[in-house]
Amino acid sequence: MRPSGRAPDALRSIRLDINVSKYAEGSCLAVFGDTQVLCLATVEEKVPPFLRNSGRGWVTAEYGMLPRATNERTEREASKGKQSGRTLEIQRLIGRSLRAVIDLGGFGERQIRLDCDVLQADGGTRTAAITGSFVALHIALAHMRKLGAMPAMPIKDHVAAISCGIFQGVPVLDLDYAEDSNADADANFVLTGTGQIVEIQGTAEKKPFSDAEFGQLFGLARKGIGELVALQREAIRKAG
Question: Which residues bind phosphate (predicted)?
């Protein structure tokens, strides 16, 4: 039995709340059970130096956790003077995931920055950030298109992410912290709406896992991503 009582192939209760920011061009609060990540998209009329005069844009991300997002208060990384390796790894993952489904030549020399702030953490913050950031990015691009900044939406596909793991010998979908901290193995899957692979991160935490077990995790991930993409579509539809 999972600590939450969910079936092995069941997601947590998921919400993708849109337009939660008055000022950002695109916004989405991604709620995966007790995990909450605020994703805000900002459009900047500039690009990094390596893209100047290229006619291409850029999508990037920043990630952080509020001090009381977890059970005990953690110091702000700004007060320490540097970001942790975990933070850098996650924000690069978010940026890579979004760029995989965007035509960077389709919105001119502009940069879209996704700020992903973890309000509350109970496992799966990076997967919630990717899933919510896509919605925020889509809303921001739709806003730009309405303003006449581009002739068509430069989005090639949806992208979403979910965690899977082996908990007490059973492959399960969408790990919360109680499962993630005690899993035999866990993995994060980033897939497109059409099922293509963007990135897979998998680790044996207690003991190695087999090809067959990996196949079971991948199957769970595909099911979960399908459900997340449906929620993304509904959120985008509501945004107009």
Answer: 86, 124-126
